[in-house]
Amino acid sequence: MARIPVARVPTLLPQFNLHARAEPQPKSNAYTYDAIQTDIGIAASTSDVCVRFFEPSTLREKGLLKYHSDQITEIRARANSLMSSSKDGKVAIWDLRQALTAAPALLFKTSDPVLSFDMSTDDAMLVSGSVLDSECFARINLWDPRAASRPTAVFENSHSEDVSRIRCHPSMPRHFLSGSSDGLLCTFDAAQTDEDEALLFVANTGASVSNCGYFGPEAQYIYAHSDMETLQLWTTEASRLADFGDVRDLAESGVPIDYIIECRYDPQSERLYMAGGTNEGDIHLLHVGASSFEHIQALKGGHSSIVRGLNWDPAQGWAVAGGEDGRVSWWETSKPTQSPAPLTPGAKPADSDTKASHTSRAGGNGQRFSPY
């Protein structure tokens, strides 16, 4: 019997179809890392320390941004802005309403290589996580963007290894989450400048955290996956809800996954999805339930090797990915997702227990944490 229960429910999402593919530059061996949607089109970070811009849908290249001097570790988009972090110790923000130039509109500099960052929803706080330094400090730096010359606070005692992921809470602007190679997930209230007072909860996943983030209608849950391809779900108060173990075991159920690309929460359908990839470049989309998975579909033909980044919007019906083959691929659906009505908080359909409830929305029957 398969270790992880998995059902096949293709009706949870409309079918994504490969629409366009941008090949790598001639004679280039550069990987494509992140590929994201911005206000001026697709932005893709590459291992030759560039950010390339493409027309949406057609993927015709339209611009190049080269600023950082070391590996770009993350790119993120906000309204009219592109943000990037790098192992050169910088987090840069460009105003996309201006011509693409080598000069960012805002710059945050540290003495440590930056692995991840995020901006609070009110744009009043930027947080970055760094590599463990020679003195065994893994720092979390906090800035006020209105005074970006120096951090307003530095937390350096919460993690003992690289801070691999930073995510700000979507509705509480001073709260943020950090994940680390030490296996810890930490939640903070940055309204407190003292690190001990700011640290709210600590969860030990037991595995090196490669990615984590909030999910749920009130962002009351946390997902975390590791570089050992394990997936866990937690509450923001450090209670573990689910431990799926190694998701590569899904191969026993006929879903070949060699690694986790990312997890993504869709607020319209109130569902958490996981994207897993194969070494041959296929992408599998799955709904993550309380104790099982539902396989929805596979995105094929876009890549021929490991997929490094995936950005997608089920409601708008598009997906974009970048991979070690240097390609950027774009998928579209025939029509946007028609999201079913969300569960009423606290409501429990028949045959439910106290921790999870069943739903038949859009054809799915996986258990969810109420009200998730």
From TrEMBL:
Classification via SUPFAM superfamilies: WD40 repeat-like (SSF50978)
Comp. bias regions, Polar residues: 331-341
Alphabetized UniProt keyword annotations: Repeat, WD repeat
Region (Disordered): 329-372
UniProt-listed Pfam families: WD40
Domain of life, source organism: Eukaryota
Alphabetized InterPro entries for the sequence: WD40/YVTN_repeat-like_dom_sf, WD40_repeat_CS, WD40_repeat_dom_sf, WD40_rpt, WDR89
Matching Gene3D superfamilies: YVTN repeat-like/Quinoprotein amine dehydrogenase (2.130.10.10)
WD repeat ranges, renumbered to this chain: 65-97, 300-341
Protein name per UniProt: WD40 repeat-like protein
Source organism per UniProt: Coemansia thaxteri
